[in-house]
Amino acid sequence: MFPEYRELISELKESNPRFRSLFDKHNALDHEISRLEQPDGSGYCEQVATMKKEKLKLKETLWQMLKEAEAGQA
Predict the structure, then answer these.
(1) Helix 17-36 vs helix 6-15: angle between axes, to the nearest 10 degrees?
(2) How far apart are alpha carbons 51 and 61 in whole angstroms?
(3) How many of the other CB atoms lie within 10 Å of CB of 59?
(4) Disulfide-capable partner of 43 in 13, 20, 38, 51 (CB 3.0 to 4.6 Å)?
């Protein structure tokens, strides 16, 4: 996720507990979605759809935090 911000992500994970918590929750959801979904798509269900929506909201929040941190460094 956001390879262009790899260094900034590392910095924020160390210095910002909220960012770290959201980042970890995003990764946990990603792993759980992968576990529930099957390669043939048979594991897709309402629960997975809800988890994907939550993951997207987290990603949007993380993106905003990265952009704000980047602007603060300039």
Answers:
(1) 120
(2) 15
(3) 17
(4) 38
> Which residue ranges make up each domain of the chain?
17-73
Local structure of residue 10 (DSSP, 8 states): H
Residues 6+ apart with CB under 8 A from 57: none
Q: What is the pTM of this model?
A: 0.88
- The two tokens of residue 43 are 């594991």
What pLDDT, on a 0 to 100 scale, did the predictor assign at position 12?
97
φ and ψ at residue 38, rounded to 5 degrees: -100, 155
- Spatial distance between the Cα atoms of 29 and 51, rounded to a whole number of angstroms: 7
55 touches 70 (CB < 8 A): no
Q: How far apart are alpha carbons 27 and 72 in whole angstroms?
A: 26
